[in-house]
Amino acid sequence: MLLRSKPILSYAAPMMAFALTLLLLSHFLEFPSLSTPLPVSPTRTTTPNSPFSDLLSAFSLWDSHVGCPRFRNRLAAWSPNASALQTVDARECSGIGISHVSVLVKGWTWIPDNLDNLYSCRCGLTCLWTKSPVLADKPDALLFENVMPPSKRRNGEPLRVYMDLEASRKPSGFEDIFIGYHAKDDVQTTYAGSLFHNNRNYHISTQKRNDTLVYWSSSRCLPQRNGLAKRFLSLVPSHSFGKCMNNVGGLDMALTLYPECSNSDNYAPHWWDHLHCAMSHYKFVLAIENTMTESYVTEKLYYALDSGSVPIYFGAPNVWDFIPPNSIIDGSKFSSLEELASYVKQLANDPVAYAEYHAWRRCGVIGNYGKARAASLDTLPCRLCEFVSRKGGRSATTL
After folding, report:
1. pLDDT tens-digit profile of 25-72?
2. Residues 248, 249, 250: CA angle, nearest 5 degrees
3. d(Cα 335, Cα 296) in Å, to the nearest integer?
4. Can you state the angle between helices 337-348 and 223-233, rounded to 10 degrees?
5. 3-class SS at 316?
6. Which residues neighbour 181 within 8 Å (Cβ) at sequence distance 6 or greater?
7. CA–CA distances in Å: residue 188 to residues 103, 107, 176
8. Longest dimension (CA), the chain
9. Which among 181, 211, 150 has a CA at the least distance from the CA of 375?
10. Secondary structure element (H or E) that encloses residue 356, with its range
């Protein structure tokens, strides 16, 4: 009697499914986390073609047409991915080792000087963060940001900390502690804090321009980002500051257009001194990341949020895990730049729909944004010192 053989595909499918299950269970194969923001369509008024300039009047209209209770109710099911951000202050104090930790910053390019301080942290821990080898002559940890840490560490020597907040996020291979922008790193640091933009003029204009809708500023003219910006800005009235595609008559023209944005008459201003103030005169700010990768959400977006404008964003696919709900226009969700430009123009003439992009701030609906700020550079000293303390500082055993 002959036995009929089964087609090989009838065996292959179950075997492949079983193998995939094993890989997932062993964490050998991982998929990036996905945020699942609740789609929220901005409220439309009965007279959408209503150009406006006064932002506070738009807020009043929104209050009468919609209001915070309805907005909160619509967003009750909003559920960003909690695992995209480390939870600050979540661990028990019982694991704290040494009660005072000193961190000496050895190599850096952009770490602000005003981060240097003696901090009183949770669990009775004190933390000295400094760039001075005099103040920290026997540090518990050495922080390297733009140079490689030593390839070897002997017992009794400071722990080696390496920080890379760029999109590449590459550990050096020689560090004991790695600081990056991702929740999977030893210590996560987001771009959401205020220390990235201290000493700036935070005057926020109540008047928005109607003739020019979009603000754009870039002085690092990367081909891919520039190309996207050029194509979109050709479709909407815009002002381009900075070196890339400048159309306002030169660099540092913001103070000519908006003299109220001057910080001081005592020194020559830098373009970043009045960045937020200048942005605030526009209804929209174009924010394009240098690299579009998971969880890489930089100051480009947070600057726009802080300025009281609506960001038009191209960047991290899980951006909603780091920002308030209904706070940005996600450019990737439109089928074309033409469709995006049409939406922006309509929104600019609809005060109620436009005001809804500011409702998160006025109604206290912030999603993961609070966690993003809590895990920012502002709190890094205490969080790093706690990590160093739990490892034992200089007493940590070399592996």
Report:
1. 333 333 233 333 444 556 565 556 789 999 999 999 999 999 999 999
2. 100
3. 23
4. 50
5. coil
6. 165, 169, 188, 189, 190, 191, 295, 296, 297
7. 17, 19, 15
8. 102
9. 181
10. helix 351-356
